[in-house]
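sry for the spam today, last one i promise. struct tokens for design, 519 residues
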């Protein structure tokens, strides 16, 4: 293990200590610094990469991983430092420069155009022409189909991306990058909304690319994935190199120590302690517009956290959106404590104290052009408003409290959300709903992109909600997460429930068997 020593080294010595000998490497990013206005986000960062290598880039939320990769791929310019490819200095001034060099970034935040179909997105700016110079649609759709097959997405490329789930959009982004002749492919949290099956497919693709000599820089907060797929890991902490692990040193303990700078104690799986009068939420023969001939019946009550597992497209998000009134149920009833409730609009759900923390935080969860404070206080404005004047001080102190509780990395609660790292945006999305007092809360992929320490905080907070008698339902594609937090797991496949498991039977195999409908 190579840990950067702290102490009274000169800058030069410190850098020398941080870089193991990487002679013969294809890519070197040397002494990369990046300041955003006066804030220094990367400080003399070094990484290097070999041909055909899978390098994991690790670090907590806000450590600087995405920023470093955006510099490599021409989106940001470094404040200082050099990039060398095969010994020659290169300076990608924009995305197309970087593409010419073969540096392709698959973004953490999805970047597809909603008004185009899948094929249009895949080959945007690279359209095929016939000999007469006309748009060659036949070729476009044929190539699009091929690209989709490579990531295992069996879907018509004529469909608009707006109709795809987040996971499907993520696969389209990956397919797009793969079709671009990458030399270095950067995957910034590619699996954050993929389930086991799609992740497996992605890993197969990565192995193939490796064989073809493509190098991959892989960013993920799922440590098991890193341990499996990476040849080496470089860890950043607070914008600096904190160390490096070779394949045989890759384990949870070493990764966490380098990321966090100390050993962290995880909260044990705890049980809810709720002794009050339970609230009971029930779905009876609910049918969603996506699967109109499948019925879902389930009951959840205070004192339990119910995890909903299943593959992409199994109908979990549709179920949540139907409960919350974003979609209209085709049939069936909802009830709370035996009383039927009608939810035709999210407003009705909010009135009943039913909240949804959505999967796509950008569309429904947060407003990136607004500040952290504004985001947290928004659904709750009436609480802070007196005689229609918003009490800024009250609003701010509540937001500051949440920012602290969730350990959001920012300079001040006035920071615009768009300037926070992906994981920190997610923490704000959750904090926003906690500022209200729900009867039931549905989390859809709550820890997408959240680092390991913050995940633990979120789990603790869910247990607290449960202890207070709030009904908690968690939809998650992260198997470790489902197993860790659920008191009961309900598995869905193609719009219906295929099984229910209790802790003694939680294994990935058992859940998978139900998820593919082979129970
Ligand atoms: N455009 C910007 N303006 C100001 N600050 C920024 C900007 N982009 C990023 N930052 C800051 O730089 C730091 C590093 O962010 P970055 O997105 O690189 O983190 P990350 O390691 O990718 O985190 P995550 O795991 O959450 O994705 C964060 O503190 C973030 O707030
Ligand atoms: Mg990031």
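last one done:
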């Amino acid at each position: 293990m190579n840990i950067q020593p702290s102490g009274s080294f000169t800058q030069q010595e410190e850098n020398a200590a941080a870089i193991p000998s990487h002679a013969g490497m294809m890519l070197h990013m040397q002494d990369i610094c990046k300041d955003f206005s006066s804030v220094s986000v990367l400080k003399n960062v070094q990484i290097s990469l070999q041909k055909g290598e899978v390098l994991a880039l690790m670090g907590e939320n806000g450590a600087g991983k995405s920023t470093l990769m955006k510099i490599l791929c021409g989106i940001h310019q470094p404040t200082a430092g050099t990039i060398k490819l095969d010994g020659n200095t290169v300076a990608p001034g924009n995305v197309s420069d970087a593409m010419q060099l073969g540096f392709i970034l698959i973004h953490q935040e999805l970047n597809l155009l909603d008004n185009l179909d899948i094929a249009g997105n895949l080959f945007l700016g690279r359209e095929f022409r016939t000999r007469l110079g006309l748009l060659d649609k036949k070729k476009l759709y044929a190539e699009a189909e091929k690209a989709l097959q490579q990531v295992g997405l069996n879907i018509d490329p004529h469909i608009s991306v707006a109709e795809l789930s987040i996971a499907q959009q993520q696969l389209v982004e990956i397919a797009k990058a793969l079709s671009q002749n990458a030399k270095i492919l950067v995957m910034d949290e590619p699996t954050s909304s993929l389930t086991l099956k799609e992740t497996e497919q992605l890993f197969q693709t990565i192995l193939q690319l490796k064989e073809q000599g493509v190098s991959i820089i892989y960013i993920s907060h799922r440590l098991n994935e890193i341990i499996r797929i990476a040849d080496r890991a470089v860890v950043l902490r607070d914008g600096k190199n904190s160390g490096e692990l070779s394949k045989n040193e890759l384990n949870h303990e070493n990764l966490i120590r380098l990321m966090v700078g100390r050993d962290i104690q995880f909260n044990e799986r705890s049980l809810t302690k709720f002794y009050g009068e339970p609230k009971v939420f029930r779905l009876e023969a609910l049918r969603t517009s996506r699967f109109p001939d499948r019925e879902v019946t389930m009951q959840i009550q205070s004192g339990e956290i119910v995890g909903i597992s299943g593959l992409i497209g199994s109908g979990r998000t549709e179920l949540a959106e139907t409960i919350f009134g974003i979609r209209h149920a085709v049939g069936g009833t909802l009830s709370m404590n035996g009383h039927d409730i009608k939810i035709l609009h999210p407003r009705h759900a909010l009135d009943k104290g039913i909240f949804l923390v959505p999967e796509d935080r950008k569309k429904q969860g947060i407003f990136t052009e607004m500040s952290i404070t504004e985001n947290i206080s928004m659904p709750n404005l009436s609480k802070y408003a007196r005689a229609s004047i918003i009490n800024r001080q009250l609003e701010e102190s509540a937001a500051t409290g949440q920012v602290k509780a969730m350990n959001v990395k920012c300079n001040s609660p006035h920071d615009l959300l768009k300037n926070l790292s992906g994981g920190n945006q997610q923490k704000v999305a959750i904090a926003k709903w906690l500022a209200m007092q729900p009867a039931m809360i549905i989390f859809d992929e709550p820890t997408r992109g959240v680092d390991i320490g913050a995940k633990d905080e979120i789990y603790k907070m869910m247990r607290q909600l449960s202890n207070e008698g709030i009904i908690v339902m968690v939809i998650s594609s992260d198997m470790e997460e489902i197993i860790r937090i659920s008191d009961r797991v309900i598995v869905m496949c193609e719009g219906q429930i295929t099984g229910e498991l209790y802790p003694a039977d939680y294994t990935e195999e058992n859940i998978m068997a139900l998820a593919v409908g082979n129970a």
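The chain has four domains: 2-102+182-260, 114-180, 279-353+439-449+466-519, 365-437. ok im logging off now
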